[in-house]
Amino acid sequence: MSNGSEAMDIFERVREQFNYAPYPSTPLDFLPKNDSNYLFPYCAANPLYRRDGRYVPSEGLRILDAGCGSGVTTLSLALANPGAQITAIDLSPASVAVARERLDKYGYADVALHAMPLEQLPDLGQTFDFIHCHETLYLLPDPQAGLCAMAAVLSERGVLRANLHSQYQRHEYFRAQHLFAYLGATTDCDQETAVAIATETLNALAETTQLHARTWRGKEGREKETLLANHILEGDKGFTILDLFSLLRGAGLDLIDMVNWRHWNVRNLFKPNCDLPDYLQVAFESATPEQLLHIFELLHPVHRLLDFWCSPAAVATSYQSAGTYPPEAWAHATIHLQPMLRTEKFRTALDEAVTHGLTLDMRLYLGYTDPQSVTLFANSLLIFHLLWEAPLTFGRLRELWLQIHPFHPLTLAPQTLEACGEELLRLLPDLEDYLFIMIEFGAG
Ligand SMILES: C[S@@+](CC[C@H](N)C(=O)[O-])C[C@H]1O[C@@H](n2cnc3c(N)ncnc32)[C@H](O)[C@@H]1O
What we know:
By secondary structure, the protein is α/β, with parallel strands linked by helices. It is 41% helix and 14% strand. It has helices spanning 4-20, 36-39, 45-52, 72-80, 93-105, 143-152, 171-182, 191-204, 210-215, 223-229, 241-250, 278-286, 289-299, 344-356, 378-387, 394-404, 417-433; strands spanning 62-66, 85-90, 112-115, 128-133, 154-165, 253-258, 305-312, 333-337, 360-361, 375-376, 392-393, 437-441. It binds S-adenosylmethionine. S-adenosylmethionine binds at residues 14, 18, 23-24, 67-69, 72-73, 90-92, 95, 117-119, 134-136, 139-140.
């Protein structure tokens, strides 16, 4: 950590920057209500399921938005978790004022908002079941102290989503920040002057100069927002996966998973059907999640954010993917639709696909699922349709399947309940693997 007065200085500069320009500058009219892709990381049920293998409804959950900015994330938390009790805090009073206006406009006047540093969260005297800290942790003078403050107000079985900027992916912006600090634009000037100096400098650079080519081209019309969020972002720092795990250990937290975990699969970085070199094969078999994620970022640093879910280290992960359960376990399974898929937009596409036997590319609705497109056929989509109103036990789903498919499509012989069960056992584990559905075993 930097020395005390330097830390205080960064702290004040960060506050000044976000008072000058509350982030994001998204108009109050923007309501991300119909976008399952966008809302997915805001939904508390997702990390709770990935840790416990249980579906937890949002009603009554105590949720904290730490570093709420202009309130877009807070509004998203409210939309993704109906009936939850939401509190939001931010260092910048101007940002909190915009957040208040945004939440009131959509009928969330009951969200409690406080202008305060997240390092002082324990002073609130409350604990939370889900803490959400988006695009904020990397700005703190001492991210370890910030993470510890959040861990201190996390309930015993709570979950936390936070993220850090990647040192490798963002190295060009970190160089730009060093440049403008070196020129005195960010250390000795007010925000407006810093924006002006950075704009003039970047505009004056030759198209082929790397800083221009990699960070400035194509930003026309969005110069100020781009600069404030990148080249002259106060307090910004880069982290590696090793830094992330060290911060987690320091705060007594364990990783549940990366929020976009399917995008971090190191095996996908090799040619399809290629036999891995022996030493890699052996290394991967014994590697920890930390090691696999670190190898991924060294090979392919494409993710701007190290975006993670974590929880108190004392809470064991009991989640097991559905494909690992034996057939007899399914007799006691209850199946839920991914709550964020329940949007009008998805409903319309689903009805159309089920009615006319079409396919859907699920990446349009849940991009966290896979870097490649995920095409689902009518049979799988029918499962979403059946789960739309309420969760179903495996037994009930199998009965409905028989009603819909009374005859074998090739032989036209009457279908059996067992055959329907086998068909569902072929379809359900894949859907669960992408978190399109959640399956609770032992709950049916
Ligand atoms: C990039 S914005 C992100 C806002 C919001 N979470 C989002 O993603 O839209 C970062 C926010 O963190 C706030 N912030 C920075 N340091 C903070 C601290 N120590 N305590 C609380 N908030 C802080 C800033 O004021 C700013 O509003």
